[in-house]
Amino acid sequence: MPDDLNWAIGGEAGDGIDSTGKIFAQALSRAGRHVFTSKDFASRIRGGYTAYKVRTSVDRVESVVDRLDVLIALTERTIDENMDELHEGSVIIYDGERTTMQDVEIPDEMIGLEVPLQRLAEEAGGAIMANVVALGAACEVTNFPIANLDESLKKRFGDKGEAIVENNKEAARKGQQFVQEEYEQDDFGYDMETTDNDYVLLNGDQAIGMGALAAGCRFYSGYPITPATDVMEYLTGRIDQYGGKVVQAEDELSAINMALGAARAGARAMTATSGPGIDLMTETFGLVAQSETPLVICDVMRSGPSTGMPTKQEQGDLNMTLYGGHGEIPRFVVAPTTVSECFWKTVEAFNYAEKYQTPVFLVSDLAMAVTEQTFPPEEFDMDEVEIERGKVVDEGDLDSWTNEKGQFQPHFPAADGISPRAFPGTDNGAHMTTGLEHDALGRRTEDTEIRQEQVEKRQQKVETAREEEDWDYREYGNPDADTLVVSWGSNEGAMREGMEFLEEEGIDVRFISVPYIFPRPDLSEEIEQAEQTIVVECNATGQFADVIEHDVLERVDRVNKYNGVRFKADELAEAIEEAISEAEVTA
Amino acid sequence: MSSDVRFTDFKSDKQPTWCPGCGDFGTMNGMMKALAETGNSPDDTFVVAGIGCSGKIGTYMHSYALHGVHGRALPVGIGVKMANPNLEVMVAGGDGDGYSIGAGHFIHAVRRNVDMTYVVMDNRIYGLTKGQASPTSREDFETSTTPEGPQQPPVNPKALALAAGGTFIAQSFSSNSQRHAELVQEAIEHDGFGFVNVYSPCVTFNDVDTYDYFRDTIVDLDEEDHDPTDREQAKDKILEGDKEYQGVLYRDDNSVPFEQREGIEESMADIPDGAPEDAMDLVREFY
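ok -> structure tokens follow
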């Protein structure tokens, strides 16, 4: 267990919960502490319970846990919602002077800190700063040097002028002083050590956007949808600096077709959406594959089916990305397992798309999309970014891909399945592209032999990629352990920490986290070697477990969570323990 | 741009499979003439089409082309043009493709005003699926799926375009080949979204909206003393339900194309070999 602190601010949507939480998280990050944030939010703009949670430690933190040490409660409901996570000695900061908070009852074993947030904020220059007063109080409670807040406040309010920044600093100090003066107990048991480390703090959607820019993405078209919109918002404006553009399309059908058009014109192009948008785009998956257009299609999954729970976690679209679309579509499915991997896998996705001229599904999930995490900036070392554009021909080498009539053959059935691309504007490269079955020239055909040849050509690309690329996994724990745990997507962090809980129980596991869904690593040996294999995923049916069983023709055990909330480390450890003991009973 | 390009350079060596006498022959020839006339070459032209008889056009023309899915040609064309504004982008569609399944894209393409040309081969019927009602079919037009007629008024695509802020709205008749080619040429030369609805008769399934019908009824706007830059006049002409016009119905001479407003000048195909030099700034933003 790292010596960590779990902190949260909760209230109604519209209360500034997010920005207040972010200010604190940034202050911690700038003070050289690691941060892992999570959000509880509802699908509405104002009202309804919402919370921003921060877990922080000097050591790296990879997940959320079922524990809350300090809570700023702007509403009574905030306390009720978090009662399960509060424990003996937890500190709850609230404004007892607010009419709605006067009847708040704090359980005896917890510490209720009544701070007149609004009154102190007014003294500092305006009631609007009540949340900042609470942050000041939280600094005092946690022994976190308040000076660290100043830079974050400047970052947040700098645009509004120096006076506003100063007022906010003052508001924070009023909160701090109030706790100092009014509460004799000056030590709440927390010591927030700071370090000289410089960290960056970002979420999975931002990492995907950043990866896209680094990879040379120049065109993005999308339609706003939770939780993928952050990708679009990140790219908007920033992509222009590199000569690119974000277009908000009228719907997802338009979004993917625009991106397809841009890709045909030679731009690295991407669209991102979530489940319902993926459904709408499905028609075009086949066109992308059949026309051999490189395209990155990002699916940031949320709870389904239908509209499901738009602001909750699920990994339920795996089958959709693996199998969605009529006919047989060669494609790659890449699923980052950490926030920083969101960056690197995005770069890879663009390279695969162009090298193999296929749709590449970049699959992320809500838990990763909204989680902000600290990293040393070197983790995103841009010098490491490599760009491979695959077989692109120009006027000079176009001749080697023409037929006896001098016509360019964009779908030439090369042995590796990969034919040349000529960007529009290339002299003598003019050619037809179609979703219909076509010959090497790209012209429609129903010739049975050519049909078969082109199907095999497209499939061959997958085989070539299987051989040429490293479809590897990441591994933790004891490689000789009897229990093998496999997961994909954002579960990696929770499982890694969960292993520490399991260790305390004397349970030894080997953990494999798989970022490649198709093609994917062959786990036959690993599964054969283990006595029991457990596949962990946030869905009810075990979609990844199904493909693994299919691969190795062996039953695996499953740990599934589908209530809309990501795995928490301690809870996951418990579920694994249970799966192990159930297997023992059956055996 | 080479001046020695002839319209036959835009012809592929593939023989069209359109029915003999189909209006689409004339429509396509006019497009090729207009492209050559405006100094484009096949290698800097991109033709996009959707599904249906109109969708086949990319196969019969010689240029960079994409034959996509039903109703989605316009977004593809927008993507192409934005990624490389140096290309001449022409989108071809049919009345089903463009005004039914693609109606949403049509309205938004019009209001987006990307500098491209949209030619709709309007034959007021679904031809390739063998004769069902289309969005422009007459209210009482009997077909296999509407034995009593569609029982709903046809869409007025010119009115939709005007309402959506269209900056160039024209109509032609594929059989009046010279006039049709001129109108497509004007659409190409227009700075913005050039929309041409072309009466392109289906000789197999539509025995109402025939060559004879259009020949007898069509009125050239040039003979009507129509000022296409006058939006009010254009509105009146477009909303006159019982007249078939050819010519430019509306033209906004102050139109500025979307991609120009967005400052896109260069092809997006050129990207550096690795991440851009200043890319670490992207990371530092998150301090």
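Chain A has a mean pLDDT of 95.
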